[in-house]
Every structure is written in structure tokens, then in C-alpha cells.
Design goal:
The chain is α/β, with parallel strands linked by helices. It has 2 domains: 5-282, P-loop containing nucleotide triphosphate hydrolases (Rossmann fold, 3-Layer(aba) Sandwich); 291-423 and 433-540, Rossmann fold (3-Layer(aba) Sandwich). The protein is 38% helix and 21% strand. The protein is built from 19 helices and 21 strands. The strands form 4 sheets. Strands 11-10-12-13-21-20-19-16-17 form a 9-stranded mixed β-sheet, sandwiched between helices. Strand 12, helix 15 and strand 13 (380-383) form a beta-alpha-beta unit.
Amino acid sequence: METMKYIFVTGGVISGLGKGITASSIGRLLKSRGLEVTAIKIDPYLNIDAGTMNPFEHGEVYVLDDGGEVDLDLGNYERFLDISLGSDHNITTGKVYRTVIEKERSGEYLGKTVQIIPHITNEIKRRIMTVAEASGADVCIVELGGTVGDIESMPFLEAVRQMNTEMGRGQNCIFVHTTLVPMLGTVGEQKTKPTQHSVKELRSIGIQPDVIVARACEPLEYSIKRKISLFCDVPLEAVVSAPDAKSIYEVPIVLEEQGLTDYILKRLSIDAQKKDLSAWREYLDRILYPSNTVRVAIVGKYTHLADSYLSHLEAFHHAGAELGTKIECRFFDSEKVEKDGISQELACCNAILIPGGFGSRGIEGKIMTARLARERGIPYLGVCLGFQIATIEIARDVLGMKGAHTTELDPNTPYPVVDLLPEQREVKDMGGSMRLGSQRVLVKQGSKAAALYGTTEIGERHRHRYEVNPDFIEKLESAGWEFTGRSEDGVKMEIGELEGHPYFVACQFHPEFKSRPKKPSPLHLGLIKAALEYKQAREDRHVL
């Protein structure tokens, strides 16, 4: 295909409608027709990237192979499209303005007055087209974060409006607008007015949507589709119903069955192969119709917002589908565990995950949880901070190192089992200064990790600053805490496995970021396998 095709996905009425899932699903459908697809997420906040953002504000910080700290929607793109993206695929207001200001300071604008139009909009267009063309894809899907009408989004909407005009209006660009169709409980009628106002706002900017994806609790009634088509000047076949689904992986099927893929291909004049979604349908069936169930406790400090651990939840979906098992994730606030002790509900879970995190709040609750898993033989997976927590707990409770800790939280600990390595000591900048991105890990032959990965050399994504202190490795391993994964230089500990325990495994990297449908994270898969065995053993002993 000679000319790059663009699909711009916008949102109206309220945030959180699922633009990212809509964009990802469209990409999955186009891939099923034999097209190469890439994706870009535009975030209108002033941050350069998501690296310093609190998960309570914006959900998890997703890490890419190149170390980019980005919006969680890029995780959806990678999972649905089975591709690896780079940090340039996340465009923020901060990145755009910084570049324009740097150019102005260096005199590149030759003394002209620098303005939103054309300088900011030109930079936005340049970034979109550079990333799209470098990808070698046939179609680039661009999701515009925020909601139409937000002042922060205006330059981005203007930029894509210009792109549509410059590339031949309606020939190489289409706009997919996601909106809400609420149902008032007292009336029982689906209401189209919010969608009408949202489209009116979009058209006032100069953008006419080609497709409207209407989010609602139930499928849209035919009369409602006709009304939206009439009032929003969109063909009836382009008004697509997106009702609540049992799984996000069901959304591509829902859209396909309404003819959305065929309509998009027709609008963009693309000749494509016959559709093949058989593998996706098979995977969906394994999620929707499991033969078993296990309960996994996720113990952390951001448990009030499930999106804070989105990639872990998806990794469990992938592992569950592989094993025909439904994963019931139970969230436990580590601060509450620290205050009230281990609850019966936590102790009765079939497996425990302690994910990554920063800060001291709830740390002792996590250490208590790791001890519970170690002493009772409950399958345990520690990720990033969870790896350090396991190390601290073993140092304290097995080796008797009272007060053992990480110097990140206790600079005066008598036993700094987790500490900064020398190269990190002078780093002051918080943004992008950690050990980030995909790095090689050497795995010990014969270990659980080697068996799960099927190899002794892996590449996994990192996001941390502190490491296991090399001065304590010999003592820790004498207690059965064996470091079966190490960095290429052998200095940094990457994987720990507890001898004599059915599954007490932890890693310094984030395996959840590379988990995919039909390619689950090996360590999450291992945890669920162990959870099934643990549950069966308890049932055999008639233990609830």
C-alpha cells in the first residue's frame, strides 16, 4: 500500500468510555484481514511522559522495550496487535511544547512569532507521520486522549483536522468517535442527546465523524441507531453498538459482527484478505468458558483503582485462558494488612501476588504477606518491589537480620539487603532516571524459571532503581533464597526462587508487560499452575 492510511479515534461525553479498547479492537480486526497496523496514543497532559504520575491519577505506568514510560493504552495496543511499540508512539503536550520551545530558543523559526497554529500543530503532525511511516505499517490508528471540548485537546484535534484536508479529505483518513448512550432508569429509554451534542462539538472544530461507536449497557435499539444516524449525519451502517462485554477480548467480535471492518476498508479504499478470526474466537471461548477457578490475592497500595495493576490482570487472563481457568483477583490494601493483620480471606487465597510500587506506605503489610506465603506454602509471585519484599522478609525472619530493609525506605537500616548500586547514587532527576526497558537476563539451568521460559536467556522490561545488595547474596542463598536469574554482567539479581517451596518466585523485572493473548507471561502462568495444585491439595484435605 503506497499511501499511509490513518484512523483517528476520538471520545465524547465522558472519559473512560473505552477509546483504547475500541482502537485496539479495530487494529485487531484489520490485522485479521492481513494488514500491518501500528498505533499512537496522544495524551494532552503537560507531563513529558507518564513516569512520574501517581497510579491513582492515571492507572498503571506501562513500560516499553525502549524504556518509554507511557499510558496504559499502549499496553492494550501491544496485547491486541501483538506488536512492540516505542516511546515515540506516545505523544504528549509536554513532548510537543518542549520541542517547539527548544526550536524557538535555537532560532529555527527565524524570528517569527511562534504560535499554536501553525507551529504546535505542525509539530504534532510531524510526530504522527514520522512514527507512522517509520513503522512500515499499512494503517496507523491514532487515539486522541481526553474528551472533545477539553481545552487541552484542541491543538491535537486541529492538527488531525489539517491532516485530513492535506491528505485528501475523506480519502486517507477517517474519524471514529466514541460516545455514551445512557439509559435513564426511570424512563428505560436510550438517550441520544449526549451523542448529538458531542458530535456537534466535534463538527464545530471542522471534523465530521465517519463512524460513531456508541457505548451503552445494552445493544442499541434499531430506532436509536437510526436517530443517531439522522442527527449526526453518519450512515446507518456506521453507527456501531458497543454494549458492555464480559471480556474486553470480546469487543473485536462484537464490532466485526456489525460490519465495521468492511465499512472501514471500503471508506479507506483498501483491498484486504478474507477475514480470519478463528484463533481469536478460540482464545475468547477459553476466557468465557473456564473449567476451573482460583483466587489470587493482589496485595498493594493502589488497590482502590484496578487500572493501577491492569497489566497484571491481563496477564492473569492470558494465563487463565491457557489453563482453562478463571482467575478471581482479590485486592488487599497492604496498609490495612499492616494495621489489622492477615485476614482470613487473604489467608484462604490460592496464590499471592505482590506487584511493583514506590514509597513506604503499607510496606510492613507486604512483608507480613510474604511471610504468610513462605510459611504456609501458598504460591507467591513477587514483581519488582515484590522481589525486594521477599528478600527483606527472608533476611529478617529466616536469617534473623532484625531491621533488614531497603535503603530507599530506611537509609539507616543495619542490614541494607536492598540498596542503590554505585552508578545510581548521583542521580537526582526523578523522570526517566531508573533502570528502564528491556534488558537481557541469564537464567540458571534447571531452575523453575528456566523450565517456564523454556530457555536460559530472556529479555524482560524493567522499571526500578534499587537492587539486591551484592554484599548479602551469599547469606541469602545460604537460607535457600537462590538467585536463579542475573543480569548479563552478573551483578544485578533478577529472579529469586525459594528452595523447598512449591512456588515462591520473585523477579526484579515486570513480566506482565510482555504478556499477550496465547503467549502468557511464564511467571504468571507458573503461579496459576501452582495455585491449581495448591487448591486441589487443600480440597483433598477438605480444607476450605
